[in-house]
Amino acid sequence: MKTLRWGILGCAAIADRAVIPGIQASETGQLVGIASRDESKAKNKAEQFGIPKFYGSYEALLADPDIDAVYIPLPNHLHKQWTIAAAQAGKHILCEKPLALNAQEAQEMVDTCKEAGVHLAEAFMYRHHPRIARVKEIVASGEIGELRVIRGTFTYNGAANEGDIRQVKDWGGGGLFDVGCYPLSAARLIIGEEPEAVTVHALFSPEHDDVDMMASGLVEFPGNVALTFDCGMWAAFRNDLEIVGTEGTIVLKPSFLPSKENDTIMVQVGDKTRQEGPYGIDAYVSQSDQFARTAWGEEEAAYSAQDAVGNMRLLDACIASARTRTRIVLA
Global pTM? Predict the structure, then answer.
């Protein structure tokens, strides 16, 4: 079997917790190297996870011909710079969400990767879990009737985390970028349309560099379908998705953080409720394998890089709405 040789730019916690184990457990991936601007930090991570190579700069990793693809878990304001650098080095790229700081940056990244002939994917791992394909199948079958509304929540309390990069405005901090992007992406995927307008209210906290620590919103889609959502970094942990039709509902709980032990679907139609699953799938492993097969040209990408631009455009509108306290109409 072919192997996609991975390198990681940075030593972010998400890499330790999920993506490194996902690559190492995949059928297709081999983790070859990890880079940090602090070489000793890269060395420690390499020893911790049994990674053969470590580098004291991102440039050194990108120059290594033994690396085929890179995972970028860097702060949001660095995504564009290092995605473009990786593309120009001929590496395929899995970049953490959100892809960029705005839709214009995201489009530049997509265009550069297309010109370089490399695969670019936004790291929404939950989309690679079979639950999502099954939800779309149930909705399309008409079992829950006509789609009316999607309700999504993703909150946690990180307000006391001093030095958290998510609390730095110029670095793309804020709850909408960190967790609000999940229900927004899910609604676009399930409804299968781009939104028409958004109205968002947010708590911009002066003690957290004026980033949105909490936000609630309404996203209007064609056909009188809507997403209602709340998200943020200063509330009790919640992670739910509910799809509501005229005849029934589908509930995913947890929605965006499924585990192999907790990845069921609850479907209620009338007075009958059923559970589908558990599937016992690690979405990070699925993401790694699907990425490799697309990079090799063996299958189409499950979600195009251009889709990330669409989600970024929606995030731009949400932030503009919250800042101005107005309804924003999307072109």
Answer: 0.96
